[in-house]
Specification:
about 300 residues, mainly alpha, three-stranded antiparallel sheet, elongated
Length: about 300
Amino acid sequence: MRKKIEKEVIFYEISDFKYYLQNDKRLSQNTITAYITDLEGYASFMKEYQKIEDVIDIERENINKYILSLKRKELSKTSISRKIIAVKEFHKFLYQERITKENPARFIDTPKIDKALPVVLSKEEINKMLASIPTDTPLDLRNKAMMETLYASGLRISELLALRLSNLHLREKYMIIVGKGNKERMVPLGEMSVIYLRKYIEEGRTKLTKGNTDLLFFNYKGDQMSRQGFYKYIVNLAKSTGITKEISPHTIRHSFATHLLEGGVDLRVVQELLGHEDISTTQIYTHIDRSKLRETYDNVFPLARKDEENV
């Protein structure tokens, strides 16, 4: 017998699902927030338009009507796909936990999204950016160490900003990264990143930190460096070196992965370095590599060009 709840609460199982995402799936907080927000909208739709306040009463027809309502709002395919995935995962959870006898979302299709290729900087553009960073002040040293580490190790911006002294093993040239779902991985450090991390720690960090803390990177106030602060820095750095592409800290990660594949590194190795759970996430970089190969082929190989005289 299911427990009784107050009428104003819609789908109290969403709280159980949130606990499941946090503790069993160990998803990032941003992903969990997106799931729960989408499900709260789903629950509101079921109550207002389908007169359903209990998950055991939901049928496939009700879910299809919800999806139709999303399409009528002219949402993007990406938004609709994300909301449908949230609903499917929720009903899968309810079925697995035996809260419902069936999974009405089992055969609901998720719209296929054409993944846009991420922006990637060339090796020349990366080198130009790195070479333009001065090393005169503590903040300069911090910026140099952050950029060298970001590119040489392909970190997520959240991973870079969360780095601590205890994560670094400079003599052995590697660091321990705590990625999504609190999963740890060992990531190599490049020669230049080791040099500038040492220099920053010895000459810059002590002048930025407020006190006894293991955190590695700080802003000018001595607080932890923010995502927004570093994003603005990278955008300004790119502009100052004449790069017109729209970039972000993640662009450096994309460039890292692409350059490794161009150099012949195995896809599985790149997957491990990036901390991707599923290799399909890493495979997008093979598309970038192929598109660049095609472009190079068309530009360089004479027979690939159309003979204008015979057109």
